[in-house]
Specification:
92 residues, mainly alpha, elongated
Length: 92
């Protein structure tokens, strides 16, 4: 569980930062994220079992895929809500 969530946290924060800083990336990837995040975790299980053919990597993938969407969405929202004054100070 720690491995799946750890990978999701790292990937989610990086992707969320990129999405939060760029309006174009957000417009391009947001529809994909909105569709994929609605897939229930139990639906990912047969897909991952067919792809990995083993229970250990399949469990890590299911934990990753179900926990990465909230991390991405919340990180992107947090980055977008940073006041412009703080962004200007960071550029200096």
């Amino acid at each position: 569980m720690a491995i799946g969530f750890g990978i999701a946290a790292v990937v989610g924060v990086v992707v969320g930062c990129v999405i939060g800083q760029s309006v174009w990336v957000m417009r391009g990837l947001d529809p994909i994220f909105q569709v994929l995040r609605t897939v229930p975790p139990l639906a990912w299980l047969p897909i991952s079992l067919a792809a990995f053919r083993d229970s250990a990597p399949s469990a890590i993938f299911v934990i990753f895929i179900t926990s990465v969407w909230p991390v991405i969405i919340n990180t992107a929202t947090g980055i977008r809500n940073i006041p412009q004054d703080y962004r200007n100070v960071a550029e200096v």
